[in-house]
Every structure is written in C-alpha cells, then in structure tokens.
Write a structure and sequence with these properties.
The protein is mainly beta. Strands 1-2-3-4-5-6-7-8-9-10-11-12-13-14-15-16 form a 16-stranded antiparallel β-barrel.
Length: 380
C-alpha cells in the first residue's frame, strides 16, 4: 500500500507538471520535439497527412551487439524486427483515433515478444496542446538523457500506454505522461507498476540559429497497490535532471551540447535498494556532418541509481558486493545515418564506454533499418 506522504508527493509532482503547459499561450509554434538534432532523429519522419482515414506502415529491423564485461551489466545481442501497421481516423480536425498492431520478434526466438493491438484517442483542443489516452508518443520521443532513460528500450519496450499531455510553443515545450505498466485487479498475485515522467524545455532565443534552452526532466517509478495478494513491499524511486542545451543547425552541419546535473532519490526504499540518494553530472557533445555523426561525453556519478536508465551509468552492480559509490565514464559514438525519400532510413553506429576508475572498456555496435509510409484511404 502506497503511503499518504508518497501519494501527496506524486500528486503534487503531476499537477505542477500539468500546470506548466499553460504558459506562453499566445505564441506561434516554430520549434518542436520532432526537430531534435540528437542521434535518434533517424527514427522520426515528417508526417503531414491530413486525410480523414489513412494507414501507416512502420517497420524496423535491427541488430545491436553489446560487448559488456564489467560488473554492471553483461553482454548480450538484440536482433530482430518490429512491425507496426496503424489505422488512423480523423472525424474532425482536433480528434484522432488510431488502432495499432505491434509485432516484436527476436531472431532465433520461437515466440513473439509482443503480438497484440493497441488503441488510442488523441484530442488537440488547440494547435499547441494535445491529450492522449492509450498508446502514447513515448520511448525515445521523450528525449530524456541516457542515465535516466536507456534508448535501447526502443528495441525492448517500444510501446507505452497510459495518459499523456503535450504542449509545444515558441518558447516552451512540455511532455507529461503516465505510463501504466502493470494493471491490478482484486486478489491478483502481483503489484501494480507505473511510471510518471515529465520534460520541460524553455527556449531562450527561438529566432536565433544557435538555440539555447534550459531543460528539466524527471521520472518516477512506483510499484505497489492495495488490492493485491503480493507481499512485496511498496517501492517508489525517482530520477531527475536539470541543465542547459545548445543546438545549432546549418545546411549540412548540426551540433548540440548538453550539460545537466542528475539526481536519484528513493521515496519508498526497499531492502534491495543499496542507496537512498545519489547524483551525477552529465555532459554530451553531438556533431553531425552530412550523414556522419560523432558523439562524445563524460559522466560522473556518486551513489546514483537509475531504474529505467542505461545500467552503465548506475552505481549498482549486478552483485551487491561489487557496487561502486563513484562512477566516471567517457562515452563515444561514431555513426552513419541517412533518410531516403522520406520513407526509409538507416543507421550504423559504434559505441564505446571507458571506465576512468579501473580502465574497463565496454563497446557496442548497431545496424538498423526503418521504413515508414502513410497511405491515404480517403480524401483530405
């Protein structure tokens, strides 16, 4: 059972995030999350279809090999495909109803890891503000930093279901969501699981080619419930980060730089949680020239834990006796990413992670193809 104190904290956090959407209400939209310059932009396509009825076919084939040998995560390989046919219906301009079937298959694994339908309704009372109930615009689209949200979850947990509020204007972008991961009925032998997240970005100079923004983000994970038969204790963990972002794009060159202070706090700790509070400093430089890109960054953490982030940034090892209070990592990525005719993209990359304290080197490499096509089934 979740404590009254924790309930108040979660409610206050959610309400404060919701209220932040309604600033800058008279501004013109010219800067959105879909225009991001980060290494995941190959996943996003311009989708300006306004047909009343349309069909979107999205497919992603991927191969990612992680050569990890340290104390924090062991190596493994992800190879397979995702197929997502989605039917859109727009009875009016402000309302969008869609039905998606998600297929996730790992090569060499006999069963589908996901093979079921998802449904959502998106209502946009204004061009800047939208509400989604059902399958949301989630995963890497939230644009959280790797220590808080592992982008590899795109190949593992691609679908997020729940409630989402999105606001985009000239000076402010906001994304607030509730991802309900495990539903609970009376006398179920498990706990309910959910995640609440938010990212706010205040753009200081929207008309400049070099855009500077102040950004904050948080993620709260909770497991518990009052009507289950599970004896596991209630657990509520929180990650957050705040800092600045600089972006600039020219004809064939773009770059971005992030510098953020990250923190961790166990609101409702459990015996398996080794740390109650922790923090870290995250710096990342991204440069892209034509279709080639380079990323370099540095992470320093002290008793930092991340329940949805990349385990390489955590102080919690696989075995408790190997926990390291302080972690310092240099990380790099070389990649090639290209979009073709607005319906196909590919990315090949090599990542390295170097532990400054003990000299361990972890590395990974990836190849991914993405197809995205919209077919109009009615007149616009």
């Amino acid at each position: 059972m979740i404590s009254i104190k924790t309930q108040k904290k979660l409610l206050l956090t959610f309400v404060l995030g919701l209220l932040s959407f309604f600033s800058n209400a008279q501004e013109k939209i010219n800067y959105t999350f879909s225009n991001n310059l980060d290494e995941h932009s190959y996943l996003f396509f311009n989708e300006n279809d306004t047909s009343k009825l349309s069909l979107k076919i999205r497919a992603n084939t991927f191969f990612k090999n992680n050569e990890y040998f340290g104390d924090f995560i062991k190596g493994y390989t992800l190879i397979g495909y995702m197929l997502q046919p989605e039917l859109f219906y727009r009875p009016i301009k402000k309302l969008e109803i869609s039905l998606l079937w998600n297929v996730l298959q790992y090569s060499g694994y006999d069963k589908f890891s996901d093979y079921k339908p998802y449904f959502r309704i998106k209502y946009s009372p204004t061009p800047k503000f939208s509400i989604i109930i059902g399958s949301m615009d989630g995963n890497v689209a939230h644009r959280l930093i790797e220590p808080i949200y592992n982008p590899e979850r795109y190949f593992l947990n691609n679908i997020e279901n729940g409630l989402q509020f999105n606001y985009q204007s000239t000076h402010y972008n906001g994304d607030l969501w509730l991802n309900w991961e495990k539903f609970l009925l009376w006398n179920d032998p498990w706990q309910e699981r959910l995640t609440v997240g938010h990212k706010s970005e205040f753009l200081l100079n929207p008309m400049s080619k070099t855009k500077v923004s102040i950004a904050g983000e948080f993620l709260v994970s909770h497991r518990g419930g009052q009507i289950d038969l599970c004896d596991d204790p209630v657990q509520t963990l929180e990650n957050g980060a705040i800092g600045f972002e600089i972006r600039r794009t020219q004809k064939n060159v773009s770059y971005s730089y992030y510098s953020k202070f990250a923190q961790y706090h166990a609101i409702d700790p459990t015996p398996d949680v080794p740390y109650i509070d922790g923090y870290g400093i995250y710096n990342k430089l991204f440069i892209k020239f034509y279709n080639f890109g380079f990323i370099c960054g540095h992470w320093w953490g002290d008793m930092f834990m991340n329940f949805r982030g990349d385990p390489l940034f955590s102080s919690q090892a696989i075995f408790a006796e190997n926990n390291k209070n302080k972690r310092a990592i240099l990380f790099n990525e070389l990649f090639y990413a290209q979009k073709i005719h607005g319906i196909f993209s590919l990315k090949a990359s090599v990542n390295t992670y170097y532990n400054l304290y003990n000299g361990d080197l972890e590395y990974a490499y990836m190849l991914s193809f993405v197809f995205n096509q919209i077919f109009s089934l009615s007149k616009k």
